[in-house]
TrEMBL record:
Keywords, sorted A to Z: Cell membrane, Membrane, Transmembrane, Transmembrane helix, Transport
Gene3D superfamilies: MFS general substrate transporter like domains
GO cellular component: plasma membrane
Location(s) in or outside the cell: Cell membrane
Record-given protein name: Predicted arabinose efflux permease, MFS family
GO molecular function terms listed in the Swiss-Prot or TrEMBL record: transmembrane transporter activity
Organism placement in taxonomy: Bacteria, Bacillati, Actinomycetota, Actinomycetes, Propionibacteriales
Organism: Nocardioides szechwanensis
UniProt domain Major facilitator superfamily (MFS) profile: residue ranges: 16-409
Membrane topology: Multi-pass membrane protein
Top-level taxon in the UniProt lineage: Bacteria
Amino acid sequence: MTGRTRSPTALGLRPNIAQFTLLVAVNGLVGGMLGQERTVLPLLATDVFGLASYTAALAYILAFGIAKALTNYVAGAWSERYGRKPVLVAGWLIAIPVPLLLIWAPHWWIVVATNVLLGISQGLTWSTTVIMKIDLVGPERRGLALGFNESSGYLAVAGTALLTGYVAANSGLRPEPFLIGLAYAALGLGLSTLAVRETRHHADHEASLLPDERELTPREVFARTSLREPALSSASQAGLVNNLNDGLAWGLFPVLFTAAGLTLTQTGVLVAIYPAVWGIGQLVTGGLSDHWGRKHLITAGMLIQAIALAGIAALDTFGAWAAAAAALGIGTALVYPTLLAVIGDVAHPAWRARAVGVYRLWRDLGFAVGALLTGVLADAWGIRPAIWIVAAITAASGLLVAVRMYETHGPERRTA
């Protein structure tokens, strides 16, 4: 015996560390494309386009959420049919015009239409980086892997929101902040085309190590993930409510903070705190879920988010809002990679990419639901009552997880 040859489809973090690290970096660029809008676009709606209705101003988040949700579903199916890398590259090609259109747009409807493109791009790129990391690491370190993936994306959201807020305060709302997004898109396309490798064969290898399972139709995968399977469907509803909260934060927090007299720089800091804590926290919470299990982290995270939202609705100073935004980030960090890990735990590798697509369909519909619901509520009763109502919805979601979800990882795990 002359030595051991490493399998090209070996599962695990260590044998795939180079590609894993590259995909973490690529997903950071994906998050940065979203972050270019977080501080600037809500203020463009009010200050440049003069929109007085919250519902109309939040139309771009509604368009983004619907486009991203539907594309997530398609991305899961396409990544099984055509491979992961082509879907990733296609997402970056669609991203290229987004910052250019945001710079040029003379009418608000063009901004809304541009966010349809952004949603399609995010659905293809972010879904595919999630699926590729699940492919590479196998079952044992899934929570850790997804924690790193989501952390890179949301740290980039936070950093770019802070950076664009600073640039806007010094140079104006357009065009300079969106030049950052243009650089992200060019770099993401280059790395994905030239350096990222296909990972579908890793999923095929993992499936070969497991008992055979009957091939499921797309309708069966959708029904299991949405309604029938307790853990998968509990994760889907919690994901939707989580992103409902994010749609609220994206669309209304900057308006609330500036209306209270905070400067654009202070608003940029507050807008960045939430995704920054969320991003950093996932470096810890994803791995914790591999050791402690998924269910209790998700329940705690949803309840912490509810408390944090209630604090934002009740408070009115920079320091208090900063603390509440940090708490919101902690709650989201407990939930975000853990929900994806639940999908990876329960779904068989033969239909896992499609299950991820269905879960992300429901989760990112939360952006659309959040934009529509909070816009209508804010127009009717004001921003603070809208936040109170969303806090109550979030608490109810956490209690539903506590009642319906079973543990999917660790000693308490049972067969679905």
